[in-house]
Amino acid sequence: MQSSNQKIKIALPNGIELFIKREDKLHPIISGNKFRKLKYNIQEAKRLDHATLLTFGGAFSNHILAVAGAGAEFGFKTIGVIRGEELENKIYENPTLAKAQELGMQFYFVSRTAYRDKEEPSFVSHLHEKYGSFYLVPEGGTNNLAIKGCEEILTNSDKEYFTHITCAVGTGGTISGLINSLTEKQQIIGFSSLKGAFLSEVIRNFVSKTNWSINDNYHFGGYGKVTDELIQFLNSFYSQTAIPLDPVYTGKMVFGVLDLIEKGYFPENSKILMIHTGGLQGIKGMNFALQSKNKEIIQFYEN
Length: 303
Known about the structure:
The chain has twelve helices and ten strands.
């Protein structure tokens, strides 16, 4: 399945052309990079004859909802190990968890301390004792099969036409797949949604090419954090282009790309393709938080 590239009709300097790949339109629930990451994991779970998918995530996780949607669509039971015991009695106050539960996901809420040990053999063994056999999908969905799926994002024409590819980076899986599929003439910039420079080390475990970089200047305070400036940008961009951006990943990346263009970072006549990795479901939760602080909310009208 391929998504379309949409040209950004904003005046840009130095003959630069800017497009966005609308991966957010791949599927109403399993959208964007989550569709790519789950594709081959679902096939592997079926091959191994598993009936249950188990994964991990936070309160507004795009990944949790995508796994719930994949389970409903492809006939798996789903279990979400959720960070934060306090959320157990607040499911219906949380649009992500409420929708995942509606799609059949069973939750196991754990403390933040326990969640930090989620990959330890003793914790996984405890999960098997509790739930029996399951196919484990890592937090954020990144593993070798996920990267294989993300290698299919770029088309042959994308590889021929664009000089630069950009995407948001969370766990490093999407950009790793993109790097593996790049041509030598292309450059890719990943915009970190997290504080810290550790992502490059993670990505190097999955790639051998060197025509990539990580920019961590546009995280707006860290994962899941936003500022008034970012919200105003999302709304301005939406009013100009009718393209909705999520505030955790793609919105920060698009802000960064346009800021770098303005600062003269990209060479003359660059052809830039931004990857829209979805995550629009998180807007509702973010708007609840913004409203509670009497802040401007993100304008987004679902079709």
